[in-house]
Design a protein that fits this description.
eight-stranded parallel beta sheet; about 10% strand
Amino acid sequence: MSGVFTDADRSRIAGRLVATDELLRSAYPGDDGTRQPVHTVYVPADRFTPDLAAQWGAQALAAVADAGGMESLAAKVGIDPALVSLVSERVESKLLAEPIEDLRLDFEDGYGDRGDSEDADAVHAAEQVSAAVAAGAAPPFIGIRFKCFESATRERALRTLDLFVGALIDAGGLPDGLVLTLPKVSTVAQVEAMADAAATLERAHGLAEGRIRFEVQVETPQLVLGADGRSPLAQLPLAAPGRISGLHYGTYDYSASLGIAAGQQSMEHPVADLAKEIMQLAVAGTGIRLSDGSTNILPLGDREAEAWALHARLVRRSLERGYYQGWDLHAHQLPTRYLATYAFYLEGFPAAASRLRAYLEQSSGAVLDEPATARALAWFVLRGVQCGAIGDAEVAADIGVGVGDLIALAHPRLAFA
């Protein structure tokens, strides 16, 4: 049989979809396959020293030892008894080798208004970061949160950003894992202004276009639902193409903006869940990553056991809802960050490995997975490998592939790039 579509028909139909093709290519490239940290640690900028990560790891291990040991803590916060020993061993190794995955030197809420003395702190922070990178002591991801672009702090924000980036370059260049955080964003125009600032810095310092990317903190209701009744969040990928690396939910600023009483402000309050669900929808497929916020109930003093249990539960809750990153505010939160995270991946690994092996071998089983599901399974396992929960040898033994194959399976576009 001959078809009815002529060359003219096909050309006309393709012409209708030129804009769609370009939109999908430019705005929805998918994840780039690089590692995403499991958390971000915030410290006042002037308190950072090159050995801070090691100090936090030592403090975390000491706190656990004082509480009866890692296995005891794992059991108390609800880790599967069958995994307590394995998870505890791997978390202890993590706290020794890489206690902090992502560190933000804070020039905003955690630093305050110090006038022009912030100039010297910005330069000093850059010098300390460069020293940490040179010594191999810096976390894989590191950078600053400067002040917001509202009128009262805009000039200060730009000056600190300018001084910090310039001092980094003078000290040897931008770290591969540099991350910059723009807080309290309320409009698309503020994100466009940040993209302008990034491009200006690149031109001035001879950097490649797109080298400077940034995170957007979702802390205001105006960014979730704008004055025109639409969500500005969905407009961000096109407002700053390729510039935005992540959206970070700000638990307390956002809750307070909606009038939630202080005692009820939480990562699991219904207003938080709604905002984060809109964030997920807005950037799905764009390659922009998501981070949950923090809990300010710290594992200290009489509330230590309660706070550890709460933190572990909230970390697990975020992971189950597709938020693979969150904020940590204190060294004592590191053990439960990794206990909950490692348990999440290790619990899911046997089933994911079995299904991936069956998919790759095209064997029949109780579950018939489609390519999209196979990608999600591979991405799940890859995240577990990148944070240290799952070993390369386990991937090879249980799935029958190397980590490189796993990356290609999780991010097939990369294989053909």
